[in-house]
């Protein structure tokens, strides 16, 4: 039975001029509750199912919920398991526990998109995760008692655990735990590497709770056993006002903390460096991260073993099983864990769009950066913009869908660094040894005559194929070829107007492979130009580059997409499973392509390319340099 002190604490947490058992007003917020009822269940962000603004405060004197330990990260950990014990005398199968952070989740900062003056609801921020009370398989329904385990990451604030009855559609608060917290909620966390604009530059971006008026961010780095260098970091953040719509501006909003980026320059090629992140406080002391390491990039054109991972549409999932009742991103951890287990066997990662599928629930970006931290903290983790990062009506994008949940690209462009001239236009080029990558932004116009089209041609034309023979194009949406069922129903087998405008550039500049996400499966085409296979080989290609191979590699973890039953003659291999591609350049004349399933890491599709520089120079249809008869 709760004490008077506990009840008073709970009342303060929920204070919004509300009385126990008061129905929270939702009239002005009702459009925010379920804006996507027509979508498939697997397309629905799990947090969007919660009708937060319909919440009822119904504290029950015989209900209780306790979380332990109260203090997390005593040994510097940024992740901890929390045990939750709950009791409720009138249990039902749809009772659930929400995790709120900050712990005080009252309605003092409610924001209404309509701007109408109505009495505010009691709760106007979504939990960061939730779990049903009977999740543990215990006899909660009969005994009214349960024990749950939540995995909590450091997210710059304290946490409270709230027991709800009434399901997700009619939630009623019946008990609230005491708050718990990490020892240092502001600690620098989740470093993510990315290539800089120069080949000998590595960027390190991380998140903390320290603004520049509290502490000075920097990176200490260098060779093991040598005196370290110090590099300063810039600091960015974004606000609710930066968001374009709901739920990012409303129930999904959560303070993202501060995003810091440091530029490590004049690196030696193929060299191991150690680094750690620091924040110098006003009293002169330094808050340190743990020590990490990375290997710098090879010199452009360097002849050495170089290995690249490419996938799209990973999403995020919870190791404690929370939030996963819609099978939203069922393969996310399978892919992440496979890549983590194989860290020694690749050098750089390209995640080509649709990262956490936060869809306007900003807390999920922290969850995603924590999930990929074992990879991104030691390998360059290059990203592209997808519809779930950028797409929002009347926001300057090419599409008017609401897939980003009102984020309109802001979290992705702030939380991850890419070497773009303008990160709001998420296209960029980068080199890695013998590879050159042109990463397009399919959320902005790519058609001939557009700014991006001119950039794509410049990127493709600028490569010295003598030194960097392997030319890769990538974008999130399928601008090439896909046998996906919804593309087939549209009769396009591509994003409309995709290859119509770009295929002449791929052909002219002899792009080896074009990669796409968006469609959640794996598919590889023959070398193709204008819907015609130009090489009938399946597993070994040599000689002249007379067509581009198109690969859909969107099976990074999200719910899988179906193929059409139509026989697409240009499709050589399809797989309805989660997986990723690995490219291995052995030298300037030999490239190995492998498609691996995430579940076992084994190769299920592969081919090789063998050729010399003269084969890249050779004239092909619509890919010939002009000549003269003059002697």
TrEMBL record:
It comes from the Eukaryota. Residues 307-522 form the Calcineurin-like phosphoesterase domain. Residues 192-295 form the Purple acid phosphatase N-terminal domain. GO terms for molecular function: acid phosphatase activity; metal ion binding. Residues 1-26 form the signal peptide. It is an enzyme of class 3 (hydrolase). Its cofactor is Fe cation; Zn(2+). Residues 65-184 form the Purple acid phosphatase Fn3-like domain. Its main location: secreted. InterPro entries: Calcineurin-like_PHP, Fn3_PAP, Metallo-depent_PP-like, MPP_PAP, PAPs_C, PAPs_N, Purple_acid_Pase-like_N. Keywords: Glycoprotein, Hydrolase, Secreted, Signal, Zinc. It catalyses: a phosphate monoester + H2O = an alcohol + phosphate. GO terms for cellular component: extracellular region. Residues 547-605 form the Purple acid phosphatase C-terminal domain. Its EC number is 3.1.3.2. It holds the Pfam family Pur_ac_phosph_N. It is found in: Secreted. Belongs to the metallophosphoesterase superfamily. Purple acid phosphatase family. Homodimer. This is Purple acid phosphatase. It comes from Lactuca saligna.
């Amino acid at each position: 039975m709760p004490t008077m002190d506990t009840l008073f604490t709970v009342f303060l947490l929920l204070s919004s001029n509300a009385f126990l058992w008061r129905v929270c007003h939702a009239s002005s917020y009702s459009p925010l509750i379920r804006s996507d009822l027509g979508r498939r269940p697997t397309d629905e962000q799990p947090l969007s199912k919660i009708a937060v603004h319909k919440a009822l405060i119904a504290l029950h004197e015989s209900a209780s919920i306790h979380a332990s330990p109260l203090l997390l990260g005593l040994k510097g950990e940024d992740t901890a398991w929390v045990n939750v014990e709950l009791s409720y005398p009138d249990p039902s199968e749809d009772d659930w526990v929400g995790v709120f952070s900050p712990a005080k989740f009252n309605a003092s900062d409610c924001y209404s998109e309509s701007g109408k003056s109505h009495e505010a609801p009691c709760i106007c921020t979504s939990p960061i995760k939730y779990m049903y009370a009977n999740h543990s398989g215990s006899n909660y329904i009969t005994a009214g008692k349960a024990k749950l385990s939540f995995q909590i990451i450091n997210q710059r604030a304290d946490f409270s655990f709230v027991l709800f009855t009434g399901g997700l559609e009619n939630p009623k608060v019946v008990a609230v735990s005491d708050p718990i917290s990490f020892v240092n909620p502001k600690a620098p966390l989740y470093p993510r590497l990315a290539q800089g604009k120069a080949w000998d530059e590595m960027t390190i971006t991380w998140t903390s709770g320290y603004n520049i008026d509290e502490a000075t961010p920097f990176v200490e780095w260098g060779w093991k056993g040598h005196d370290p260098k110090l590099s300063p970091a810039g600091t960015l953040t974004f606000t609710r006002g930066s968001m374009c719509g709901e739920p990012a501006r409303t129930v999904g909003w959560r303070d993202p903390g501060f995003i810091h980026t440091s530029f490590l320059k004049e690196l030696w090629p193929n060299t191991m460096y150690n680094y750690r992140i620091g924040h110098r406080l006003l009293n002169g002391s330094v808050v340190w991260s743990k020590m990490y390491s990375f290997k710098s990039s090879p010199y452009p054109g360097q002849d050495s073993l170089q290995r690249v991972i490419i996938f799209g549409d990973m999403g995020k999932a919870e190791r404690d099983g929370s939030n996963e009742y819609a099978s939203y991103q069922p393969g996310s951890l399978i892919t992440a864990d496979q890549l983590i287990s194989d860290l020694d066997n690749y050098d750089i990662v390209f995640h080509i769009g649709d990262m956490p599928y936060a869809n306007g629930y900003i807390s999920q970006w922290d969850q995603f950066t924590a999930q990929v931290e074992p990879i991104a903290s030691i390998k360059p983790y290059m990203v592209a913009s997808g519809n779930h990062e950028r797409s929002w009506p009347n926001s300057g994008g090419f599409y008017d869908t609401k897939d980003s949940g009102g984020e309109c690209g802001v979290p992705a462009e702030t939380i991850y660094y890419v070497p773009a001239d303008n990160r709001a236009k998420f296209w960029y080029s980068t080199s890695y040894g013998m590879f050159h990558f042109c990463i397009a932004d399919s959320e902005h116009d790519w058609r001939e005559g557009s700014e991006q089209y001119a950039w794509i041609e410049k990127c493709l034309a600028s490569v010295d194929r003598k030194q960097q023979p392997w030319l890769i194009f990538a974008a999130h949406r399928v601008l090439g070829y896909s046998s996906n069922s919804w593309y087939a129903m549209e009769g396009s087998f591509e994003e409309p107007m995709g290859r119509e405008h770009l295929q002449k550039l791929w052909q002219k500049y002899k792009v080896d492979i074009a990669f796409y996400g968006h469609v959640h499966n794996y598919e590889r085409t023959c070398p193709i130009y204008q819907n015609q296979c130009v090489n009938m080989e399946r597993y070994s290609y040599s000689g002249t580059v007379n067509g581009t191979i198109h690969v859909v590699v969107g099976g990074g973890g999200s719910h899988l997409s179906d193929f059409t039953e139509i026989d697409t003659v240009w499709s050589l291999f399809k797989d309805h499973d989660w997986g990723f591609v690995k490219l291995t350049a052995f030298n300037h004349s030999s490239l190995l392509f492998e498609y691996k399933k995430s579940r076992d890491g084994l190769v299920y599709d592969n081919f090789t390319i063998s050729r010399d520089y003269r084969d890249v120079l050779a004239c092909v249809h619509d890919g010939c340099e002009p000549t003269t008869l003059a002697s």
